[in-house]
Amino acid sequence: MNMVRSMLIEKEIPRTFWPEAVNWTIHVLNRSPTFAIRNMTLDEAWRGSKPSVEHFRVFGCLTYIYIPDSKRIKLDDRSMKCILLGVNEESKAYRLFNPAFKMIMVSRDVIFEEDKA
Predict the structure, then answer these.
(1) Is the pLDDT of residue 117 over 90?
(2) What is the Cα–Cα distance from 13 to 6, expressed in whole angstroms?
(3) Which end of the chain is more exposed for a tag (fewer CB within 10 A), N or C?
(4) What's the total number of domains in the chain?
(5) DSSP for 42-89?
(6) Does the pLDDT at position 7 exceed 80?
């Protein structure tokens, strides 16, 4: 819970998003080395292969989600500004919060600005 608390405070994300922070923390911890199992991660011990961490991004960072051509007209923006909340459990996509519409979106077409919140 210390990781969850520090992530929410660092990026100034409301406490109502604590379940998203917990899911991201568990996702990271399962793919991190631990003292319980020497020279392995928990995910590696469970599945038998080393987990990929290429998809790791900074929790709460600023993201831009691509809007497909079919959902916009000629002069509309091609992207929406969102906040990264973690990864989707059902697919290889990211969970993003859109503050303008106050809704959680799932997408793979994302550009990250990890140094901005």
Answers:
(1) no
(2) 10
(3) N
(4) 1
(5) HHHHHHSSPPP-TT---TT-EEEEEPPGGGS-TTS-SEEEEEEEEE-S
(6) yes
Name the nearest CA neighbour of 113 among 44, 52, 48, 60: 60
Query: At 75, which CATH number?
Result: 2.30.30
Which pLDDT belongs to residue 100? 93
- Full domain range(s) for residue 19: 2-113
Quote the CA–CA distance of 78 and 69 in Å, as a whole number. Answer: 8
* Strand 94-98 versus strand 103-107 pairing type: antiparallel
> What are 18-70's pLDDT values in tens digits?
999 999 999 898 888 888 887 788 888 888 888 888 899 999 999 999 999 99
The pTM for the full model equals 0.83
Which has the closest alpha carbon to 95: 109, 82, 105? 105
